[in-house]
Specification:
With 229 residues, the protein is α+β, with helices and mostly antiparallel strands. It is built from five helices and ten strands.
């Protein structure tokens, strides 16, 4: 499935996961969703069917893959099965446009999409920077594992989540559990540009790397901008 994939889950203990919603922090390509979307997720009804991708938020450039396109690629009918939770379905599915400002002042597009199920949340981000994944991996921590996905250089690492708790009109935050992130170069030659897939759970259990890899190997080839050769 991947080359030289070894366990790299040491150094972080899983804390209490979100009571109502979990928001990822610390990803290379992504940021934190707005509080409005957190409230939306906290009040999702269990009576409706699988969520469809909502309209992408923010400015959409014709030159870049949009958050809506990322959401369409991620919100697959077989996503629950890929995650190892075949009886579940998407509760929320959303795309978001964004940008990252580099040290030079240059802004690069950084769209993202998130799909949330009962057990897992999954985020797919894209970046068009010129930084090779092999170089970025050196800044992701000592436990970061360099590997390959479908012949593309990749890096597997852990990050934290923020826990949001809701008590009436009061919102509390605190340290959450562990998210597992996979950063993958857009091209086999790793000439710049990357995608990142992140999964985290709604409980205190460590995410399954096998599930993360299944999602990556199935979803990434369907994303605009992925280069197989």
């Amino acid at each position: 499935m991947t080359d030289d994939l070894n366990e790299s889950k040491k150094g972080m203990n899983a804390g209490a996961q979100a009571v109502a919603a979990v928001v990822l922090v610390g990803g290379v390509l992504g940021g934190m969703w707005g509080l409005g979307e957190v409230f939306d997720r906290a009040t999702v009804s269990g009576d409706r069917g699988p969520a469809a991708c909502s309209k992408s938020h923010g400015f959409v450039s014709a030159k870049h893959v949009s958050g809506a396109r990322l959401c369409t690629a991620l919100n697959r009918q077989d996503l629950p099965e890929l995650l190892g939770t075949p009886t579940e379905y998407a509760r929320t599915a959303d795309g978001n446009e964004g940008s990252v400002t580099m040290a030079s002042g240059t802004k690069i597009a950084a769209p993202e999409a998130t799909v949330t199920l009962d057990t897992y949340s999954v985020k797919l981000s894209a970046s068009e920077d010129r930084l090779p994944v092999a170089e970025l991996a050196d800044f992701l921590g000592a436990t970061t594992q360099k590997t390959t996905i479908l012949g593309h250089p990749a890096a597997l690492y852990s990050s934290r989540t923020i826990e949001f708790t809701f008590n009436g009109s009061k919102v509390g935050t605190g340290p959450g559990g562990i998210a597992r992130s996979l950063l993958v170069a857009r091209t086999p030659k790793d000439g710049g540009g990357s995608f990142e897939i992140v999964i985290w759970r709604q409980d205190d259990v460590m995410p399954d790397d096998t599930a993360l890899l299944r999602v990556a190997e199935t979803v990434l080839p369907t994303v605009p901008g992925w280069t197989a050769d």
